[in-house]
Amino acid sequence: MTRPPSLMQLLSLSFPLGRLFGFPLRIHWIFPVFILMEIARFENRALGAAVMGFLFLSVLIHELGHAFMGRRLGSTVREILLWPLGGLAYISPCRTASDDLKVTLAGPLTHLPQAALYAALLFALGQPPQPALLNPFSFTPEPGGFWLLALQYALHLQAILFCLNLFVPAYPMDGGRILVALLISRWPPRRVAITVATLSFVAGAVLMASGVWFGLFPMFEAVQIYVLMSQGMLEHHPMFHLAPRVRSAPVQRPTPVVVPPVGRKCPHCQRPVNPGAQMCGFCERTI
Questions:
Q1: Which one of 99, 145, 231, 277 is most buried, counting C-beta atoms within 10 A?
Q2: For residue 160, is it within any domain?
Q3: Tens digit of each residue's pLDDT (9 = 90 or more) over 210-257
Q4: 197 touches 225 (CB < 8 A)
Q5: How far is Cα of residue 81 from the mean position of the Cα atoms in its chain?
Q6: Containing domain of residue 200, as a range?
Q7: With bands split at pLDDT 50, 70 and 90, how would you rate the model's confidence at 95?
Q8: Would you place residue 162 in the very low, low, confident or very high pLDDT band (cuts 50, 70, 90)?
């Protein structure tokens, strides 16, 4: 009788998508489920499918930004995992916290040229984008045809993904990684871990309360950080591999006391004499 999958196994379930630019691609099961749920919310299902296509493309480009920067800095990209809030690029540890920060920032910054491209396309179609489209908290599209609406949604998605990944200090979003990269050389690792885990749990709870049900992931990752910290294995977490480790001071061993061998005595001063010697060392040097 097989055991049912644990919560950790369920939350990590993903499927291969092949390779792109030499990077192995996988997709988390939550991404297609999320896409289907979002398409169902649109009255125009074709428009919903187009918007979700833009979301998939944006997430893929975001993760490629991480991967290309990691490759440029000498790291190995093991795989790219796609999920709704920007995905995860599994990259071997960088040599410095500064390199970690560069790799992390490379993902959110890809949304700037994407936003510029969609804004340019809207201009080309005769409908200049309104500043309200860059508001990540609300969205009111201007009336228009199919592609005008789709491009407005695509531009709005860039604002959402950019702000969520850059300004929400919760792991596994990039804001949590950026916070660790900035603090790891200034604070003790345990203090950084407590700060990021707490913020991740709170951010996940807020997302869940707002109806964003995959806010469960930051909450789950916060628990994982606390567990590793309680086990003294914090450096095994991908965010804390550069954390300075506490090393114990070397043990000061007492200098051994050399006891002169007991045996014959020196004929001059009656001190003990080493085996095979005619007199003690003192008399040997002075006589």
A1: 99
A2: no
A3: 877 778 888 888 998 998 888 888 877 777 765 554 333 343 445 454
A4: yes
A5: 13
A6: 169-239
A7: confident
A8: very high
Is pLDDT at 148 greater than 70 in this prediction?
yes
DSSP letters spanning 78-135:
EEEEE-TTT-EEEEPPPSSHHHHHHHHHHTGGGHHHHHHHHHHHHHHTT-PPPGGGG-
Q: Per the domain annotation, does 153 fall within a domain?
A: no
Segment 141-145 long-range contacts (CB within 8 Å, at least 24 positions apart): none
Residue type, 128: P
Q: Number of structural domains, the chain?
A: 1
Q: Full-prediction pTM beyond 0.85?
A: no
Tokens at 211, concatenated: 């109806």
Distance from C-alpha of 108 to C-alpha of 154, rounded to nearest angstrom: 15
Least confident of 71-75, 113-117, 131-135: 131-135
In a domain, 196, yes or no: yes
**Average confidence score pLDDT of the chain:** 83
Asked whether residue 117 is domain-assigned, the answer is no
Contact predicate 26/83, CB 8 Å: no
15 burial (CB, 10 Å; 0-12 / 13-18 / 19+) is exposed
